[in-house]
Amino acid sequence: MKYYYVYILKCRDHSYYTGVTNNIERRVEEHQSGEDKNAYTYNKRPVKLVFCEDFTEINQAIAFEKQIKGWTRKKKEAIIENNWMKLKELAVCKNQSSANNFNK
Questions:
Q1: Name one Pfam family in it (predicted).
Q2: Homologous superfamily of domain range 1-70
Q3: pLDDT in tens, the chain (104 residues)
């Protein structure tokens, strides 16, 4: 069975990079070695793999990668810490204009 991996790297400047690949070891090494001078991680090496989730369907992996890329730093750190409950809490809208707060 073929697997696809959604991963998060922590860069030297403490920023996060999220990607998807079918070979996690090779891909992390490519980031680490700086093969692509135009890559986000090129000037932020060394990088460290801090999260990796596997999928059997490429479309699911791509959708999850896109979802993570839209998240706040706090949400990314929640899954890095394997704290899925915190992720749920962070997903709740707390804006005054939220429908949940409308009649309060």
A1: GIY-YIG
A2: GIY-YIG endonuclease (3.40.1440.10)
A3: 999 999 999 999 999 999 999 999 999 999 999 999 999 999 999 999 999 999 999 999 999 999 999 999 999 999 999 998 888 888 887 666 655 545 55
